[in-house]
Amino acid sequence: MFLTIDFNSEEALYIQLRNQIIFGIACAEIREGDNLPSVRDLAEDIGINMHTVNKAYTILKQEGYVKLDRRRGTVISVDTNKMKAIEDLSNDLKVILAKAVCKNISCKEIHEIIDEIFCEFVINSSEEDD
């Protein structure tokens, strides 16, 4: 898994890290049962503070993407509580869609964007299975 951090971005480093790990899971670059690097190793590799990596891992755990194993460290373990996932997604989308409405983006345009992004994840995921 290749992670890149944009130090000039307005987005917090731990959010960038969290999002890239979620993208990695969605695209099947990292899979259920895979280990993430230790907090220390990842912080050194990327050149960020250990507390930043720890915060990203903590959020991923709270959101149900990883679990902590004493022997193996941080392991990909996606919580498949679909009802909770739908509720969380709905809450996240409300803000995103409100922004879209404020910018006069149509429902059709939103659907096209969603379809395009969803297909990217599905295609990338199926290519990994081949």
Automatic annotation (TrEMBL):
PROSITE patterns according to UniProt: HTH_GNTR
SMART domains per the UniProt record, alphabetical: HTH_GNTR
A UniProt-annotated Pfam family: GntR
InterPro entries: Tscrpt_reg_HTH_GntR, WH-like_DNA-bd_sf, WH_DNA-bd_sf
Highest taxon in the source lineage: Bacteria
Gene Ontology MF, one: DNA binding
Magnesium is among the record's keywords: no
Entry keywords, A to Z: DNA-binding, Transcription, Transcription regulation
Chain ranges of the HTH gntR-type domain: 11-79
Gene3D superfamilies according to UniProt: Winged helix-like DNA-binding domain superfamily/Winged helix DNA-binding domain
Signal peptide stretch: none
Protein name (database record): DNA-binding transcriptional regulator YhcF, GntR family
